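Researcher: Here's my situation. A collaborator sent me these components and asked whether they could plausibly form a single complex. I don't have experimental data yet, so a predicted model of the whole assembly would be a useful starting point for our discussion.
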Amino acid sequence: MNKQMTGIGASSKRREDVRFLTGKGQYTDDINRHGQLYAHFVRSEVAHGKITKLDASAAAAAPGVAHVFTSKDFEGVGGVPCGWLITDKNGEPMKEPKHPILAEGKVRHVGDPIAVVVAETLAQARDAAELIDLEIEELPAVIDMREALKGGVAVHDEAPDNLCYDWEFVAENKAAVDEAIARAAHVTTLELVNNRLVANPMEPRCAIGEYDRAGDQHTLYTTSQNPHVIRLLMGAFVLGIPEHKLRVVAPDVGGGFGTKIYHYAEEAFVTFAAKKLNKPVKWTASRSEAFMSDAQGRDHVTKVELALDADNNFTALRCLTHANMGAYLSTFAPCIPTWLHGTLLAGNYRTPLIFTNVKAVFTNTVPVDAYRGAGRPEATYQLERVIDKAARELGVSPIALRKQNFIKPDQFPYQTPVAVVYDTGDYDATMDKVVEMADLAGFDARKAEAKSRGKLRGLGFAHYIEACGIAPSSLVGALGARAGLYEAATVRVNPTGSVSVFTGSHSHGQGHETTFAQVVSDMLGIPEDQIDIVHGDTNRVPFGMGTYGSRSLAVGGSAIVKSVEKIVSKARKIAAHLLEASEADITFEDGQFKVAGTDRAKAFGEIALAAYVPHQYPIEEIEPGLEETSFYDPKNFTYPSGGYACEVEVDPETGVVKVCAFHAADDFGNLVNPMIVEGQIHGGVAQGIGQAMLEHCTFDADGQPQAGSYMDYAMPRAADMPMVNIDSSCVTPCTHNPLGVKGCGEAGAIGSPPAFVNAVIDALAERGVTHIDMPLTPQAVWKAIHGASAVAAE
Amino acid sequence: MYAFDYVKPASVADAVKALSAEDAQPISGGQTLIPTLKQRLGQPSALVDLTKIADLVGIEAGSDSVLVKGATTHAAVAAHEGVMQAIPGLAKLAAHIGDPQVRNRGTIGGSVANNDPAACYPAAVLGLGATVLTDRREIAADDYFQGMFTTALEEGEIVTGVRFPIPEKSAYAKFVQPASRFALTGVYAAKLKGGVRVAVTGASESGVFRWAEAEAALASNWSPEAVETLAAPAADGMIGDIHGAPDYRAHLVKVMTKRAVAAA
């Protein structure tokens, strides 16, 4: 680890924590506008039904009520748009039914908004909502994806068999994969579920709409990871407001995990209502509303087959997945099981032939979209589980089997059979590192000691690949994205030498204000506290695409680097003039422009002042001022990778799993702030273990959520987690961005579920258990042990 | 939540009087009641706060019994020297209810009056054969619990305290529901002068109950091994939900009974 005190490589303390930890954060709900009204959403209590009566006259006449909105108010207004088009195996576009702001005659999931009461107080709005005369004729609900595909009950008339798309990739490989599997020496098959999750950011969603009639200006304050994307989607596709009349502000945001990427109906609602009522309108989700209106994550059901030759080389992989879309297409939902999932199925391996078929299905459930990792955890989980199972079936070490099939360091850049090209990596290094960290050699003794206490101990490994950055634009455009996915940054040097950085990335827990300042400090040789990072307001920052896909440093940071490079280049010209030297003779180091080989120098601050007070200035050649903007569109995704190990103890009497140790050896390329990277791994691993052991968003046959609050939805707690042992010393820098960085935000959540499940299966192998679907709750583990011993007894 | 009056009586008599108003409801910590009201699932005319009545707060540890007054918080029971010495199993149980916020608000009277089928206290009250004291009478534990959320309390009757006999040995073993951390199955096992009692919470659709077979086996041989030889109670009538099917809960009754005996 780099021990220097500031700049790139330093574990600078997070400057934003001062306000977060002292209650001075400014979240959307902390904002109150003069005269604001409060919106209360009336939501469907049934999963599927026809609205047969909706009479709001009594509610509209109730005390304090400004207006009760129903779908009638939104005639001529667009639905919530989908930002990604998938083309199916027959070349047809996906089914894209309208997602109205408020239900138009039909409700399609519990929580689907039907009407909104806007009143002077929230209590008045809730009181009035009870006066709405609403009748719904309940229809049978489709919940299970395979049942849904049989047709009979359609979530949308446009998709009678509930199929959104049927996608094949790589279609040309299908026959070859079938043939390779047919003639393989060994085929390992695994059917598994990637369980549905509720994102649960600490801060529930909130939106405030405001309208200034004098200037015809709309403002939306919202809990978003990407305010410009919201402005584009809502302005252009829903409400028809041009960019210059619409400002979107995403202030401090208390966690996103993906679910705050999307444009939601509530945002369009408050913006629309504020103009209609000519007063600010505020809506804050209750936690219960978050459970039924925030886009959820995962929910894949998959059959995966891995073919091996007689020497245990992987020869082919076939993956058939059903992906739940929920009742409507959320903003990026269609791309998650396809381009963020199918393209990662090579993993870290040389598997030459890969084919996947993904059927995306509509059901009467809450919409599903990206959640920390988004598609890549699903790919990694099935791959790392099936490889572990293959090793067990073949009686070989799961570590050795992985290493035998790894792409080797001298094979980069590596063209996978699933479109993407990995630029760099050293998977043997991270695997070896994690094996060492996990003390594999001492495991047998630990297992024996656990056995003496009646516990079953297991050690599981996994290795992941990730594709981060979600760019270049040309590539994602070819794959169906309806947006560019670059990032933008403006660097403004102020006259006295301090610097304001305006970034299109959005920080909602990542610590950008610290990390980005470190980068600029390092490049300009000025202290970090001279640098301010501004984000989250479309009126202040250049058009940016926001934060998701572990992209902020790799893409947003690169845009900042490009702008700083332009600043330095211009400053060098000014310095050459002031120092009466040739530009070629000017060096820039530690904040000083020097004439090489002399002691003549100008500090960065002096150049800044000269740029703004251009008395003795090359005005003929250079404009005054020192401010530069860059848009950075990378050449490729970045590909972090890493080896994870998890050690568990199972209590066979109760099925309780205790996580005894967790080790992470990651290759994130270069690190800017190792402490923040460690924090990201801790958080990611906690979410991964949460998915694998605790969290489960399920619906009963009628579509009622069975875990609609924290009484039943089990979040990981501190006591569920071991201290995570983290190493990021294996570094193969990214070859195509200026910082050589890869991104670390999602890795923990991607690599940990398979490591955890592999560990539990390792512990239970002696009881004949070969697989348990996530989450591995005490009951699930007990039933697996119980079932396996019952089978053994027969 | 809907609007209601907040009443803060200074005596039990005043509280009883205030509760005679139509739709008035007692609040004694509110750890179940407040979330219910926030969801607009109840509409009391008034909440009568019992926690400010001096007579209802405190613990008296005697030579053969411990009295915990009705509005005493779980945290106070958990930290009480006398309880820790006389009935360590009870102090430990109180120390693991909910989280610190719940333990510093929730009270024994509130818990016992509500009789949530997954609450911890009912297991101790029934398992120790305690007596529930009210503003008008004393009710033996065996007569008090009458099924999920159902007790022998009359309309407007207030739990003023619970008197626990001091056992020779006792302990509570709780298997937590992973989300709520209520008892998915909790067992209070006690060896008393009058015999052995085993009470189970969290498992049954009929609320807290005594496991007679285990009591019989432990009466002749107070040891985990005595439980080991028993069949688990019937799964029929056990609660089934996403966290535990009836057969899993029935199995846990046996495992937790063993562990309670071992810990006592």
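Model: Some features of this prediction you could bring to your collaborator: The longest strand of chain B covers residues 183-192. The longest helix of chain B spans residues 246-263.
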